[in-house]
Amino acid sequence: MPKQIISIIVDDEIAARDSLENLVNKHFSYITVFAKHDNAKDALNTIMEKDIDIIFLDIDMPKNDGFWLADKIHKIRKNTCIIFITAFNKFAVDAIKHAPFDFLHKPVGQDMLIKSIDRYLENRDRYDLNKKLENLKEYLKQEKLKFNTNLGFAMIAPENIVYCEADRNYSNLYLSNGRKEMITSQLGLIEEKLAHKSFVRISRSILINLDYLESFQRKSKTVVLNTVMQNHELSVSLSGVRKLQNSLST
Prior knowledge:
The protein has helices at residues 14-27, 40-49, 66-76, 90-98, 110-123, 129-140, 187-193, 238-249; strands at residues 5-10, 31-37, 54-58, 81-86, 102-105, 145-149, 152-156, 161-167, 170-175, 180-183, 199-201, 206-209, 213-217, 222-226, 231-235. By secondary structure, the protein is an alpha/beta fold. It folds into 2 domains: 5-140, Rossmann fold, CATH 3.40.50; 146-249, CATH 2.40.50.1020. It has a 5-stranded parallel beta sheet, with helices on both faces. Strands 10-9-8-12-11 form a 5-stranded antiparallel beta sheet. Helix 2 (40-49) runs parallel beside helix 3 (66-76). 29% of the residues are buried.
């Protein structure tokens, strides 16, 4: 049997914390869940005071997310194993694979947890957290903005947004790769987030990226946005025409 392993669970959802603790207790008599935290700051205090072998770390948490805590751990130079927990967010998965970190998809199941711990036991003697975090930090330097979704959040580079469309209290982001991402924010908040970039509000419900603008038809009051994959023809309001003209003249 492996030597005793000390772990903590960091997740803002109480059900997720309790479920993971139950799985750990059920399948690993040599792993002790020393503490459970619902926020990154409290977890950081524990990590500074106690030698922790494994951190089960949720990525999407309010105020300070999992990547914030990972960066703090990097700065205090503790060689603690981080196993990220993510709710099927493509950017998060790409980031932790790139580093490469181990990760668990929510809801965490028995089989995936066992495999993850097996990988930890196999590699812990040569585990180098600081090297992994350096790689992660380089990956996260790419200019991407965080947008909340129903399933968690998405990290999207502004240059990949072709246009945004209001959908009641939500918004749809149409991306250059042909995907559509539903965001749990009103269009006005997204417009503020994209301020000082090449985005113009052409109507109450549409915000476009001028980098994809192919043409403007004054008579029909429409614009055409062009990507490699498709064209988008969108209506422009009277106030939108003025904003569009002002943006193109500067």
